[in-house]
Design a protein that fits this description.
Elements (H helix, E strand, L loop, with lengths): L1 H6 L8 H14 L4 H20 L3 H15 L3 H18 L6 H9 L6 H18 L19 H12 L8 H14 L3 H6 L5 E2 L4 E4 L8 E4 L2 H10 L14 H15 L5 H14 L4 H8 L4 H11 L1 H8 L18 H21 L12
Antiparallel strand pairs: 1-2, 2-3
Length: 367
């Protein structure tokens, strides 16, 4: 029996080396704790997931917070993610996070705006991707158009600024704030952070530093806004803030001016005005996308839809369309000309009836 066992691996089709490898693995893993053995089998990603599963919820969310800090370039984005995750942590209690519990948590916000629910979902999806689980859920965002602002509303806003009874010294600043936002599409924080040294009138550009997503950008200036800026910054130092206003103060000003003017205009409204006016005046959508710094052309396309410029041109083609007059006698003149025309039409009608039995003339030939 011993001899048989010795020679058994040597039968045709066997692999002696495999037996040797198994033996070596068995020897090397003998006495290892089960956890270390699992880590050897799972690889680096598996080891990471295994370590996360061994954490308490407090440890887990603290570890992910470090990930968020490295990921986010926006203080506002970091704050929002932390806020949602804090609520999710409280919802979990001591239960480990699972996609099912994630869906239950989100179901509490079903009555919120779709965009809000989509933002919460994105935060949780980021967490579960890091945790090694898939949160299989989607929120379909409705296709909405940016608000359309009439020129009369903007004029009313400017009128309030230029005729205010107090703080006359700030009229030029507040008026420039409106015109600059409307001619460049700058966001509220970008307007707040803009310095005199960021404006290069000789090159006809201004530089946005650390804009949305912490990205820098070069924004071209048209002649109208360049002239306004030239007079305003003439005696200012390059390091000076152009407006010297916090983002929240800018919002407050728009609220106050709008209330006085009886209109509904916010700082971001003027960014929409910028995009809409460009499209209305024939700018290429791709150029508008770059000027507004949209990631996708589909976002810019909303301004095309809002403007309706191409659609208006299409339906205006119907303005010159005249319905053919059917069944009415047509005046084709008199005398010899009339006779020749009648003869030609009569022959033409006869020929058409011979070749097309269903032919019926739409004009009546009166002799």
């Amino acid at each position: 029996m011993v001899e048989q066992r010795t020679h058994k691996p040597l039968v045709v089709g066997s692999n002696p080396s495999a037996a040797t490898k198994v033996g070596i693995l068995a020897e090397s893993t003998e006495g290892l704790p089960l956890r270390e053995l699992l880590e050897m089998l799972l690889g680096e990603e598996g080891k990471r997931k295994l370590r996360l599963r061994g954490m308490t919820n407090d440890q887990l969310f603290e570890a992910y917070d470090a990930e968020l800090i490295c990921k986010h370039r926006s203080a506002k984005g970091l704050y929002e993610d932390r806020r949602v995750l804090k609520h999710f942590r409280g919802f979990l209690g001591e239960y480990p996070p699972t996609p099912e519990l994630g869906k239950q948590f989100l179901s509490q916000f079903a009555n919120r705006k779709t965009a809000t629910l989509a933002r919460y979902l994105a935060t949780l999806k980021g967490f579960f991707d890091w945790y090694g689980e898939k949160l299989d859920m989607r929120v379909r965002l409705p296709r909405t158009l940016p608000p359309y602002t009439e020129d009369a509303d903007i004029n009313a806003l400017l009128q309030v600024i230029e005729t205010k009874a107090t703080h006359k010294r700030t009229v030029a600043r507040d008026s420039l704030l409106i015109h600059l936002a409307m001619n460049t599409g700058l966001r509220r924080t970008e307007l707040s952070n803009l310095r005199v040294g960021d404006i290069h009138l000789d090159q006809g550009i201004l530089i946005v530093k650390s804009g949305k997503g912490e990205k820098d950008a070069s924004i071209p200036l048209n002649e109208t806004i360049s002239n306004r800026l030239r007079g305003y910054i003439k005696n200012m130092e390059p390091k000076q803030l152009l407006f010297g206003l916090k983002p929240s103060t800018i919002s407050g000003k728009f609220t106050w001016f709008s209330r006085k003017a009886g209109v509904d205009i916010h700082c971001h409204t003027l960014r929409h005005v910028f995009g809409t006016k460009l499209i209305e005046r024939g700018a290429n959508p791709e150029a508008v996308r770059q000027l507004m710094r949209h990631e996708s052309l589909s976002v810019t396309q909303k301004y095309v839809s809002l403007s309706g410029r191409g659609l208006q041109e299409a339906v205006s083609l119907l303005d010159d369309y005249k319905e053919p007059i059917r069944g009415k006698p047509q005046d084709i003149g008199s005398g010899e000309t009339r006779g020749r025309a009648l003869e030609f039409l009569s022959k033409l009608t006869t020929m058409m009836k011979e070749h097309h039995p269903n032919f019926h003339p739409t004009v009546e030939i009166v002799s």
